[in-house]
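During the reporting period the student researcher (J.K.) took over the structure-prediction task from the postdoctoral fellow and processed the backlog of single-chain submissions. One of the processed entries is reproduced below for the supervisory committee.
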Amino acid sequence: MARTTAQKKPRGNKKLPLRGKKLPFDKYDLYLNAVQSPDGDVQFYRERYKEFFGAPKKGLTLREDFCAGGAISCEWVKLHKDNTSCGLDLDDEPMNYGRQNYIAKLKPEQQRRVALIKKNVLEPGLPKADIAAATNFSYYIFRDRKTLTDYFTNVCKSVNKKGLFIVDMFGGTACTDASQDRIPIRRGFTYYWEQKDFDPATNYANFGIHFRYKGKMYKNVFTYEWRMWTIPEIKEMMLEAGFDDVAIYWEGSKRDGSGNGKFDRVTEGEACLSWIAYVIGIKK
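J.K. obtained the following structure tokens:
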């Protein structure tokens, strides 16, 4: 499931300054452990589908936009023997990694129900799906309203009736300033999430993921150039794109103020330093 803002970060618009350099660790494995929880993600998707449309009588199709290695797509086919999934991305490197390290570890019959496809999500003819998901804030790469609305419209056309479009978001006052979070993820490795800057005139911000391994820092293993969208903007664009309704799910907090990974449907948020939420477009 989604993690606290300090932990759960990104997938979209990765510039890889270290691409081609030999690293003494598997950057995609560290990324998965540091920022993703695909098993929790797919449980959340299934629960929301049941909430809005009841228990499905057959397997469901998930499309994972900006899929990178397709970890979520692989978890989806494990949930039900008739579930199918496909992941879309433009970057061959993470998709090839996913084929070799995620799909290859599935059972043969599960492998037949998942595919990673090189395709631009702005192009017409997206694969049909009961649930489409763009998570880890990947769609923040679209930094103007027209392009993002075009993407949402494309998704709406591709989602079946009685279907969902699920995106996640993060924000809060802490996201309007440069900052860095440090999180140990396993023995010998530390994960760093850095917000490099924020422009209040455009809401553009630059981010980087760094790893410390055996005392040496490897900076900018992944970098991101995003626009920090707001929940009202995303909700308005989903409705403009043709979705019938939009629901918001807000992450609860532990006693220390960090996120607890549990999301409840809300109509009002909470003013806090950092938050994570899901916004779901509903097609009836």
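The committee noted the following: Residues 1-18 have pLDDT under 50 and may be disordered.
J.K. will present the remaining backlog at the next meeting.
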